[in-house]
Amino acid sequence: MPVSEKIERKLSSVPDLPGAYLMKDAEGNILYVGKARSLRKRLRQHFRENAPNYGWTEQLYAHADDVEFTVTSSEVEAFILEANLIKEHKPRYNIRLADDKSYPYLKLTDEMYPRLMVLRDLPRDARVSFPGRGGGRRFHDPHQQKVHGTGSGQIFGPYPDASSMRRIMQIVPKLFKLRSCRRKLDGTENGKPCLNLHIGRCLGPCRGVEYVSREEYGEAVRLTARFLEGKSGEIVKDLETEMQVAAEGLDFELAARLRDRVKAIRRVTQDQVMVANENRDQDVLGVALSGETALVACLQVRSGRLVKQDQVPFGHAADRAGPEVLDAFLTQHYSRATYIPPEVLVGEDVEDMDEWAELLGEARGTKVRVYRPQRGEKRRLVELATKNAEIRLQAIEKSHAAQQQATQGALRDLADALGLPETPRRIECYDISTTQGRNSTGSQVVFTDGLPDKRSYRRYRIIADGKPDDYAMMGEMLERRLRRGLSDDPKFLPMPDLILVDGGKGQLNKALEVLGDSGLGDTPVAGLAKQEEEVFLPGAPDPVDMSGHQSAHFLLQRVRDEAHRFAITHHRGLRDSQITRSVLDDVPGIGPERKRELLKAFPSVQEMTRASVEELAAVDGMDRSAAEKLLSALMAGPSLSGETAEEGEE
């Protein structure tokens, strides 16, 4: 197999150490990311005559012109690095998650009286601490984590299905009565109790230790942690034992409370099915493939009960086999998981199964078995996971087919309504967001074949800031986009088949002027006026009659709304950043330390305006006097209500 000079030269110096590597083409684009226990052996395996051939690898090796590698101190570190590089660079030949968004987690906070909160991403120190870099901590194991109300916080997840996470957030206050407020509690009475205490959804630690002891609250935290670990069966058994003891001691009031709690837990966990005769923890993986898409179903069995099922779709799976998809899942899932069970069952024979067992065992801290069961109960579980993956993938394909049929119909209807010579494949829509000429931003959203193409979205920080001039700002954004496209910048290609501008005749005429100056006067363009939902075409005094083109009108509105959302999100971030700097810096007594803690506790200035003096004073480093000054400054400052800041858009 022919190998480039760059690769041949580097192969002789690759160390026999663990690490991650990147294959690149002649232009420097990253084609593939991998990991290895031995970089030397793995890379030589890739670029020798006996290199593995899976169909897609032939194209990979034909385009590979260079290779870079990073040595790590352990295979676990290489494992994490590989997952991060895949997510960051999205290489062409790696099987990738169909949705690269960060999945949420749940955390029991590290406070005297912990609360349950949502994390949008997993902190690095909760994943892994690598050997040789101090600490020696491994993947979070909830069975080893101490929960006393004053110990380290616990993290659970990830939750690919955000609806299940939200359901848990609703259930926990009802079952275990943990607080949800942000107050800084120290065991003394702190302000007026909120409504949750009065409706029986909080134990009331704000009333002080005389009202609820730290031991009682700590027990609620422990029960919450076990519930999130999937140990509801064990919780019920323990509560039933306590109930029996209370009844025998004639404490019927306590026995009744315990009985009600048992009923509540059974009611919310009634969909957890007992699937194993043994009291064990395991993940069961099944895979299904179809065309470009693959899906892995992960059944999470805890204490013999099926407590959760994650169904994770992957893209770029054409010409791939089931074991390759499972290998990709193992990398992407366990690199960000907070818990690795002692047993992982797979539906197909993954390559290097023993190495995976060793790697996950090193990450967990105890032995992990990764294998494909051949008979019995475990084989039945794997078949169940595979069946679930197949059913879910079929549902996704059916939904995609219906969506594609509907969008193609809408595109044909759009071409008919606007008199276009052919159906537009690439539609670009432009929107401006500004606040009296300050922090002006523009958005370019792209719909390809009628669907959002978010990789092609672009944001523009408008340079001509100052006196509000919507037309000039729209012209600046379009001129910059077209100039980049005409210069063959790959980030701005292909050129659009239809341009939509958010606005009426003024914005439309400005777009026509820019297109003419760019030599693209033949490009179809239309204006969308929000107030009356009207569509304007060049040279037409009246808006287009869309009454007979409902699907086309709906598509135009969807494109316009997406452009508006995209512009507003960026503009609001810039505006909030400026407001944060100006308002917080001008408040007496709010220095850098307090400012940093406030921004940790509240996601935005708007959230601070909604907080009470007690909640602001509860932030680390704050006191009541500083909180009162801050709230007074926020209320007296510029509009911070979080409205959509639409001045000057039309």
Q: What is the CATH topology descriptor of the largest domain?
A: Nucleotidyltransferase, domain 5
CATH class membership of the largest domain: Alpha Beta
Whole-number tally of structural domains: 4
Could you list the spans in which at least 5 consecutive residues all have pLDDT below 50?
127-152, 638-650
Estimate the global geometry from the Cα principal axes. globular
Strand content: 15-25%
Specify the number of helices.
19
Largest sheet: 7 strands, mixed
CATH architecture of the largest domain: 2-Layer Sandwich
Q: CATH H-level name of the largest domain... which superfamily?
A: UvrC, RNAse H endonuclease domain
Assembly state (oligomeric): single chain
- First-residue to last-residue Cα separation: 61 Å
Radius of gyration using CA atoms only: 29 Å
Return the structural class.
alpha+beta
What features would you describe in this structure?
The structure is a single chain. The protein folds into four domains: 5-94, GIY-YIG endonuclease (3-Layer(aba) Sandwich), CATH 3.40.1440; 105-130 and 138-274, no CATH class; 282-333 and 340-393, 2-Layer Sandwich (Nucleotidyltransferase, domain 5), CATH 3.30.420; 419-650, UvrC, RNAse H endonuclease domain (Nucleotidyltransferase, domain 5, 2-Layer Sandwich). It is built from 19 helices and 20 strands. The chain has helices spanning 5-11, 39-46, 56-63, 75-89, 162-176, 195-198, 214-228, 232-248, 252-268, 322-334, 353-364, 376-418, 470-486, 505-517, 550-586, 592-601, 605-610, 613-617, 624-636, and strands at 19-24, 30-36, 66-71, 96-97, 105-108, 116-119, 154-156, 273-274, 282-290, 293-302, 305-315, 343-346, 369-371, 426-435, 438-448, 451-452, 458-461, 498-502, 525-529, 534-536. The strands form four sheets. Strands 4, 8, 9, 10, 11, 12 and 13 form a seven-stranded mixed sheet that branches. Strands 14, 15, 16, 17, 18, 19 and 20 form a seven-stranded mixed sheet that branches. Mean pLDDT is 82; it is low at 127-152 and 638-650.
